[in-house]
Amino acid sequence: MPLTPHSSRPGAVAMAAAGLLLATVTGCGAGDAPEPSARTASHARAVPEAPKAPAPTRLTVPSLGIDSELLRLGLNEDGTVEVPPAEKGMTAGWYAGGAVPGEPGAAVLIGHNDTRFGEAVFHDLHTIGVGEGITVYGGEGKEAHFTVTGTETVRKNAFPTEKVYGATDERVLRLITCDGAFDAAGHPVDNLIVYATLR
Prior knowledge:
This is Class F sortase. Residues 30-57 are annotated as: Disordered. It holds the Pfam family Sortase. Residues 1-30 form the signal peptide. The chain is mostly beta strands and 199 residues long. Helix content is 3%, strand content 41%. The protein has one domain (14-36, 54-198): Sortase, Chain: A. Strand 12 and strand 13 (188-198) form a beta hairpin.
C-alpha cells in the first residue's frame, strides 16, 4: 500500500529473540516524540554487542535515488529501539542488535518517511518494486547487494515480529518506515516493511 501524503517515519517495531523483547519507538508525530509500541522487560540490555563483521556504513537504492550514510542504532533506556534523530531525517540507521547486512540473519535498516524538517530518506520507499536492487556498504570496502522480494504494510500493534526479526540462516535485509493514516496523537498507525535477499 502506498504511503499517505502526510505519513512519516519508522515506528513501532517489536522483536522477540532469545528471550529478549524489543520494540522500536515511533517519532512519527509533529513533535517527533518517541512512543514505544510495547514495553520491554526491565532487564533488557541497553546497548547491543558490537558485531564481529564490520558495521555497515552506507545504503544506496538507485531506483529511488537513495544514497545515505548509516547511523548505528541501539536501544533506549526503556528497551525501545532507537530511530535516527529528526534533524538527521535524510540519514537511515542500522539496528546493531540484528545481523550485519550480508551476514547470516536478518539485518534491519530504519529510516524516516518525513520529519518536521520535511521529506526524509525513505519518503519514496513505498514506490520500490520487487526485483529492484539495494546495496549496503561496510568497512574494508565490502559491498552487500540485495534484491527486493516483497513489501508489506502492517499495523504497528500487529507487527510481524518473527517474520522480520526471527532467526534465519539466510542473508536477508529489511527496510522499515512509517505508513498509513494518523491516530489521534498524530502518529501513522502502520509500518511499511521492505524485504530483500542477498544476491
